[in-house]
From TrEMBL:
It comes from the Bacteria. The chain crosses the membrane at residues 12-35, 41-59, 84-109, 115-138, 150-169, 181-201. This is ABC-2 transporter permease. Keywords: Membrane, Transmembrane, Transmembrane helix. The keyword Transport does not apply. It holds the Pfam family ABC2_membrane_5. InterPro entries: ABC2_memb-like. Coiled coil: none annotated.
Length: 214
């Protein structure tokens, strides 16, 4: 497992660090745009971090590592688990970036109150996990080429849901992926549900590993 994680870390550093840079840039833009409560850039940056496991799978496929791994002394649980661990690392990194952006924003904008900070952090975590939870099982069952179409659909769906808030706010700003004024207990439930879905997705990916359609 350690070797697989080191391989993924090497690939991220040399081939996919642009995603991390883009995330930081979007978080920076979010510091400005959140002055009226619009957290789109911060939440969408978290969504981008959730792409990392699928990006690594694309590199594995291009380099034929998926075929070579059959000769390695690793189990399918370890091969699948490495990608889900990368997803969890992406979650932590996205939350740290978001917390930093929200901390800076709260020093300048009165609209960034405690409720918005908590809600935004939950949304970042939810959208970051959503990518892997949905796409990884599809990748292991149907292959990367078919799974990527589901990703395009998810991008459109998340953008549409966030844009839906435009008509719901008097100032015409899409402030939240979630409705305004969600109680803390409900936010906690959403966070727990997202983690539970991620765990279920992990088990499903292990069960479907090696069954991708040729």
């Amino acid at each position: 497992m350690k070797g697989l994680l080191l391989k993924d870390a090497y690939q991220i550093w040399h081939y996919a660090k642009g995603v991390i840079v883009a995330t930081v840039v979007m978080m920076g833009a979010g510091v400005v745009t959140i002055m009226n409560g619009a957290n789109f850039f911060i939440v969408y940056a978290g969504f981008m971090m959730g792409m990392m496991p699928m990006t690594l799978l694309a590199y594995d496929q291009a380099s034929k590592f998926s075929e070579y791994s059959a000769a390695l002394p690793v189990t399918k649980e370890q091969l699948v688990g490495s990608k889900y661990i990368v997803g969890l690392c992406g979650l932590v990194l996205a939350e740290l970036f978001a917390a930093a952006a929200l901390g800076v924003a709260s020093l300048h904008w009165t609209a960034v109150d405690h409720a918005l900070v908590v809600s935004t952090l939950v949304q970042v975590g939810m959208t970051t996990l959503l990518n892997s939870a949905v796409l990884l099982p599809l990748n292991y069952r149907f292959g990367y080429e078919k799974a990527k179409y589901a990703f395009y659909l998810m991008v459109g769906l998340v953008a549409a849901l966030m844009g839906f808030g435009v008509s719901a706010n008097e100032d015409g700003l899409a402030r939240n992926l979630l409705p305004q004024g969600v109680p803390p207990l409900a936010l906690l439930g959403i966070a727990v549900a997202a983690l539970a879905l991620y765990a279920l997705s992990w088990r499903l990916s292990v069960a479907w590993y090696g069954k991708a359609e040729q």
